Amino acid sequence: MHIKSVRSILTFLSIAAVALMLFSCANPKDGRPGLRISGDLITEFPDNWEFTNSFREIAVEVNTPYWLPHSVTIWCGTVDGDLYVAARAPETKFWPGLVDRNPNVRLRIDDKIYEGRLSPLDDPDQIAAVQQSYADKYNLPNPPPEDSPLSRYWLVKPRG
User: Fold this and answer.
1) What does pTM read for this prediction?
2) What's the per-residue H, E or C state across 95-132?
3) Are 104 and 71 spatial neighbours (Cβ–Cβ below 8 Å)?
4) What is the total count of domains within the chain?
5) What is the CATH number of the domain that holds 64?
6) In whole angstroms, what is the distance from residue 58 CA to residue 52 CA?
7) How does pLDDT run across 17-53, given as a tens digit for each residue?
């Protein structure tokens, strides 16, 4: 075999291996982040998100400055039919900072993709209601213990 042929084969195999790695980790799972989430795109934004109460985790995909999406699994809660997501100890995570730069996200819930926009919460009463929703859904103490990390909360709104 010629050296050119060997290099061509090795180059092809390297590209194929990288493509396989990227493809295999597209959707996040548990603590492992992913890239672009996959599923059926739902074009109608739900009026009532209470159906998400039957899902322990959902995935959120955020935009990055380097054109590759970043996705993670997160918990969610509902209050009066609205959907909320949170980041516990957000300063230790990558995705909340990306949401600050671009609040347009995609959510994966039961193999369905919803496009939305995250709006940060700052009203203490609204945050308390969302914390209660999380406490009820995930069997968490409410109020959270004094020594627990702070959380940031966002309301999921339609884009536009």
Assistant:
1) 0.84
2) HHHHHHHCCEEEEEECCEEEEEEEEECCCHHHHHHHHH
3) no
4) 1
5) 2.30.110.10
6) 8
7) 555 455 445 788 888 899 999 999 999 999 999 999 9
